[in-house]
Specification:
Two copies of one chain form a homodimer. By secondary structure, the first copy, chain A, is α+β, with helices and mostly antiparallel strands. Chain A folds into two domains: 64 residues, Winged helix-like DNA-binding domain superfamily/Winged helix DNA-binding domain (Arc Repressor Mutant, subunit A); 160 residues, Chorismate lyase-like (Chorismate lyase), CATH 3.40.1410. Chain A contains eight helices and eleven strands. In chain A, the strands form three sheets. The first copy, chain A, has a six-stranded antiparallel beta sheet. The first copy, chain A, has a three-stranded antiparallel beta sheet with strand order 1-3-2. Chain A is elongated and about 65 Å long. At the A-B interface, strand 8 and strand 11 of A face strand 8 and strand 11 of B. Strand 11 of chain A pairs antiparallel with strand 8 of chain B. The first copy, chain A, binds a DNA duplex through helix 3.
DNA sequence: AAGTGGTCTAGACCACGTC
DNA sequence: ACGTGGTCTAGACCACTTC
């Protein structure tokens, strides 16, 4: 350590520890030494060690747990999510044999705002449903999605939201159509605090944000959604 | 400020300052107060102010400059990049009327590794070219791309790399084909230090990583590339 | 020379988990 | 009671920009 300089101390320490994890010195689901131990080991202030750990956390190598220690993450091959015209979350997970759940966090009905009207091609004063849905596998939160649906197209949606299990299923079973993905806009960003808490990640871990517009097979836009997804555990594959 | 608690100080300060920027209290390309001023204003330690500024930086609101101050970023509508079977960087920028440049950072020739062989469907011992290309608009770095090309398909590539201006142009003008995007894998992550320096962003600003496989019109894979792109200034639109 | 952001040290108190 | 990570204070020195 500290063989040569120019670099920043905390980043050097982070890289050193990551190399150790790679080499198996610290193995998966085990703890790395405590912050105080690392301070002694590298002869630096605790603040520096904490910056190093923050960097490793953001890169997805470890997750610190208050009162317990700093655990090495499982090196999971990121879940692949295929984006094509007709795929939805539930189908993707099923095709990979992953058990998943979708939970309706909240919903409301209201008058469409300007952006919602533009996206869904609605008239002024049109009403929409707004849903917040969280998706998880094995109790690991994957994504939080805000979905906007034109009320006109979904009569009595309220009655189908009890015992919610999958939005897709409601489309198919209750309204008898299969939405078609029209376009998606993908972006990397940091989560809002609210989303970070829901996804159970620090607010400095990047997320993928996918803004989607789905069409009715007939052609009209029927669903506008913004999904915020853990960046480290997921890959989005686009096939042509 | 500090009307109610439970929140974390530095995050509260960050949100407060962001609100001020939104409201125009601090306008684009102007400076926010210095760290020391903010310390006095909020009656907190400089460390806390720095954490708040770090948060704002990561979210893309400001960029601190050593010795000068902390500037409010221009609220640019992110550049949209359309991913479809046949689009490439140069075409995207041209279609949006943006002046751009592509610079060849380095290149080398070598024996294909396992992953490269798998992606490009090459035999053991096959040789490849590896290029590092940086793309910018108006001196703002946009992306760094590592590209792997099978040597067999690109005879005398070296001679075409002098006065490099666009990989796409070389494909078209020298080898007379137009590659077709086969698949792309999109991910949000943090940049390596090397890439962060090239892209001129802090190492904690998220980037979009797009791993692409391009095919020869005849069907054979012809280009494998991994692009690392500034997350805040870009949107990737996928159309169907 | 003075002011700015970048990094590091030293030490405190708290919330949480384990014993 | 003790160890862990989470947050904050106080103060130092440096590199860089501006005057």
């Amino acid at each position: 350590m500290k063989t040569q300089d120019d670099g920043v101390l905390h980043l050097e320490i982070a890289e050193y520890l990551i190399k150790q994890i790679r080499q198996g010195v610290f193995s998966e689901n085990q703890k790395i030494p405590s912050e105080n131990d690392l301070c002694r080991q590298f002869q630096v202030n605790r603040h520096v060690v904490r910056q190093a750990i923050a960097r490793m956390t953001n890169l997805g190598w470890v997750t610190p747990v208050q009162g317990r220690g700093c655990y090495v993450n499982q090196l999971v091959e990121p879940i692949q999510y295929v984006l094509s015209s007709q795929t939805r979350f539930s189908e993707n997970m099923e095709s990979q044999g992953l058990p998943y759940t979708a939970k309706l966090l909240s919903w409301e009905e209201g008058i469409a705002g300007d952006e919602e009207r533009a996206n869904l091609e609605l008239a002024e004063g049109a009403r929409v449903y707004r849903l917040e849905i969280m998706r998880s596998t094995d109790d690991n939160p994957l994504s939080v999605t805000s979905t906007v649906l034109p009320k006109e197209e979904f009569p009595d949606l309220e009655t189908h939201l009890t015992n919610f299990s999958s939005l897709y299923r409601i489309f198919i079973e209750q309204y008898r159509f299969r939405p078609i993905r029209k376009k998606s806009i993908v972006q990397a960003c940091l989560p809002l605090l609210k989303d970070a808490k829901l996804l159970d990640i620090p607010e400095s871990v990047p997320i993928v944000q996918i803004e989607s517009l789905m069409n009715h097979p007939g052609g009209a836009p029927i669903e506008y959604s913004v999904a915020r997804i853990r960046g480290d555990r997921h890959k989005y594959m686009i096939e042509f």
